[in-house]
TrEMBL record:
It comes from Succinatimonas hippei (strain DSM 22608 / JCM 16073 / KCTC 15190 / YIT 12066). The keyword Ligase applies. Belongs to the SAICAR synthetase family. PANTHER family: MULTIFUNCTIONAL PROTEIN ADE2, SI:DKEY-6E2.2. The keyword Nucleotide-binding applies. This is Phosphoribosylaminoimidazole-succinocarboxamide synthase. PROSITE patterns: SAICAR_SYNTHETASE_1, SAICAR_SYNTHETASE_2. Keywords: ATP-binding, Ligase, Nucleotide-binding, Purine biosynthesis. One of its GO terms (biological process) is cobalamin biosynthetic process. GO terms for molecular function: ATP binding; phosphoribosylaminoimidazolesuccinocarboxamide synthase activity. It holds the Pfam family SAICAR_synt.
């Protein structure tokens, strides 16, 4: 598979065109950002760690019947993915209160949420990713009601699979974001699943082992990512 021009450069990943019109190469960089790009640093081993972590999680989900875009690990920092037509919203599932939901609703951090909450956010750095509902998505043409129902159902199914995986590793899956896109008309899971896009706490100590270590200046960011990978059996 030949890697061609860079089509997209996000905060921590780049997407490249290939000689196959149905596939892209996704490159994980060492760049790390928070607060919509207001805090940026380079963290050694981050691209490698997140690429391997994402591939491991995506394959676990695929084994559980979730359609995913990741196909092959090409190198320590690159993977082959299906070319998707992305839906411009993020799906957020929360099992425990943390982050923005605490600020919005005045609830304390660490509340078990039963049932888990589900939210849609428009993917837009310029607008600070505002929360949207089903009506916005349909009315503005970002997706159909069928798309909405599929994304919600898949998000909850993913929650069941990953909560169990992390629980067995002594971890709490606090919350996470997902993105979906269409491949040959079918909605499938796109983007990535890594500690950059979820919150993971140690079950006993509640130590944070995710990107909040970077956001909050706690240090040991990549060491925490690598600890999570080791616990769940992800080879790095």
């Amino acid at each position: 598979m030949e890697k061609k021009r860079e089509l997209y450069r996000g905060k921590a990943k780049s997407v490249y065109e290939t000689d196959d019109p149905n596939h892209y190469i996704m490159l994980f960089r060492d760049d790390t950002s928070a607060f919509n790009g207001k805090k940026i640093e380079q963290l050694d081993r981050k691209g490698r760690t997140n690429n391997h972590f994402n591939f491991f999680i995506m394959k676990k989900l695929e084994e559980a019947g979730i359609p995913v875009h990741v196909e092959e690990l090409l190198s320590d920092t690159e993977c082959l993915v299906k070319k998707l037509e992305m839906v411009p919203v993020e799906c957020v599932v929360r099992n425990v209160s943390a982050g923005s939901i605490c600020k919005r609703y005045g609830v304390k951090e660490g509340l078990d949420l039963n049932p888990p909450t589900f939210e849609f956010f428009l993917k837009s750095d310029a607008l600070d990713d505002p929360m949207v509902n089903d009506s916005h998505i349909v009315s503005f043409g970002w997706g159909t009601q069928e798309d909405i129902d599929t994304m919600r159902n898949l998000s909850y199914k993913i929650n069941e699979v990953l909560k169990d995986l992390f629980d067995k590793a002594g971890l709490i899956l606090v919350d996470y974001k997902l993105e979906f896109g269409k491949y040959n008309g079918q909605l499938i899971l796109g983007d990535e699943f890594s500690p950059d896009g979820c919150r993971l706490w140690d079950k006993e100590t509640r130590k944070k082992l995710d990107k909040d270590r970077f956001r909050q200046g706690l240090g040991g960011v990549i060491e925490a990512y690598e600890e999570v990978a080791r616990r769940i059996g992800c080879p790095l």
